[in-house]
Amino acid sequence: MGTWCTNGRMQQGNVRDVRTHLGEDNYVFISLSVEPKDTTAGLAQYLVQYKYPWTFAVVPKDMLAQLVEQFGQSITNPTATPHLVIAPSGAVSRLAPGVNTTDKLTE
What are the pLDDT tens digits along the chain (107 aa)? Predict the structure, then answer.
């Protein structure tokens, strides 16, 4: 995600609804900023402004390179709202783009 991205804000709103539906204690939600201009302080303000009560982080360059290697360049496109799921077993879903409804994200 990127703090400037309206698609990302829409998707984060759906994530908020999923957290409520599934239960905050049953899942861990992490949003990663892939925007090089985002800062930790700016991200903190973004969380307060939009009332996102889960973990957000700015991705370090070396981690971003590893994510691109594993998932492809599309992971760096905030407007495509790329997302994935990591199961408790460590299995990782495919990278899925697009703003998804609460129902689709829950599925």
Answer: 999 999 989 999 999 998 888 887 878 889 999 998 999 999 999 999 999 999 999 999 999 999 999 999 999 998 888 888 888 888 888 888 888 888 888 88
**Which tokens belong to 85?**
């799921």
Contact 53, 15 (CB under 8 A): no
Closest CA to 10 of 101, 84, 82, 103: 101
d(CA 70, CA 100): 22
CA distance 46 to 56: 10
Whole-prediction pTM value? 0.84
